[in-house]
Amino acid sequence: MPDPPIVRIDLGSGAPAYAQIVAQIRALLVSGALEPGTRLPTVRQLAVDLGVHHNTVALAYRTLAEEGWLELRRGRGAVVVAREGPRASARAQAEFSQHLEGLLAKAAADGLSSKAIAREFRALGRKLWKGKTS
Amino acid sequence: MPDPPIVRIDLGSGAPAYAQIVAQIRALLVSGALEPGTRLPTVRQLAVDLGVHHNTVALAYRTLAEEGWLELRRGRGAVVVAREGPRASARAQAEFSQHLEGLLAKAAADGLSSKAIAREFRALGRKLWKGKTS
DNA sequence: GACTATTGTACATAGACATTGTACAAATAA
DNA sequence: TTATTTGTACAATGTCTATGTACAATAGTC
After folding, report:
1. Which residue numbers in chain A have pLDDT < 70?
2. B66-100 residue pLDDT tens
3. How many helices (H) and strands (E) in chain A?
């Protein structure tokens, strides 16, 4: 049977489709599930899998390429490349804090307990930093 | 001297102004910094403080009112009301997990260490659940 | 009670953003 | 060379954001 798509987006979730694709693939890259050398599905293939236009996938790939995760070439496809991450900027730190506070407050407002939230945080930490310490 | 505005938004941060206002006031509500009975600034007053149109603030207030945090009435203003939070839905849980994973991956990609991320998480937890256990 | 000021709301407009349709350019395969 | 595959460019369309302006409801003043 065909492989399942590497990402699964939720149209009608409010978030733009291309942003969902970026976020999910970035998570796979950070966790190491996608290693340098790996070839991603073509923009058309993934577009069909997700039910969106191939230009939408292309925009997502381009965003990741600008972050240094991918190399894109016509006729070849999208390949994961080795990447030296930037050093944490004050700007990045501040944005993270801002967004995290908003997200936690939203979760609490939606009825999630602080315990459930902490549990999810730990679970995702294990998923994203499998073994790594930094 | 005049009170500082209760929120501070960052135009040109990508995030819509009204969403930033919603997120920040929601955080104040969740933490208990804004208690039932408290009167918020008028839409026009806050709009001037933030440098946006009053309809933008009005949209933010309406969003919070629909979540049950505020009561809005013409001529009177916006008042914080007691609110029974909903029970956590599977949908809310899934959305939180999704968004948190994206946010953590983005932070890691921007160079933040897992330690710095965990530290920020704990700090915000203390801020939002001052004493409360649930 | 009449009048004015205050405050949230409704709605049309302008601009930015997201997605798509279509055509093109570069690399590969036959 | 020729056909196919794959990413890219660009215009068109629809939706979302922010604003300008006018209106409706409440409070305050005399």
Report:
1. 1-2, 131-134
2. 999 999 999 999 999 999 999 999 999 999 999 99
3. 5, 2
Nucleotide closest to A42 measured between CA and C1': D6
CB atoms within 10 A of CB B101: 21
C-alpha to C-alpha distance for B83 and A85, rounded to whole angstroms: 44
A90: which chain B residues are within 8 Å (Cβ-Cβ)? none
CB contact under 8 A, A26 and B87: no
For nucleotide C6, give the residue with the nearest CA to its C1'. B75
Distance from CA of A43 to the nearest CA of B (A): 21
Task: Return the half-sphere exposure (C-beta side, CA atoms, 13 A cut-off) of residue B129.
Answer: 20
Looking at residue A84, what is its pLDDT?
A: 92
* Closest-approach residue (CA) in chain A for B85: A111
Structure tokens at A8: 């699964």
Reported as a single tens digit per residue, the pLDDT across B29-66 is: 999 999 999 999 999 999 999 999 999 999 999 999 99
On chain B, the residues whose CB falls within 8 A of the CB of A30 are 105, 108-109
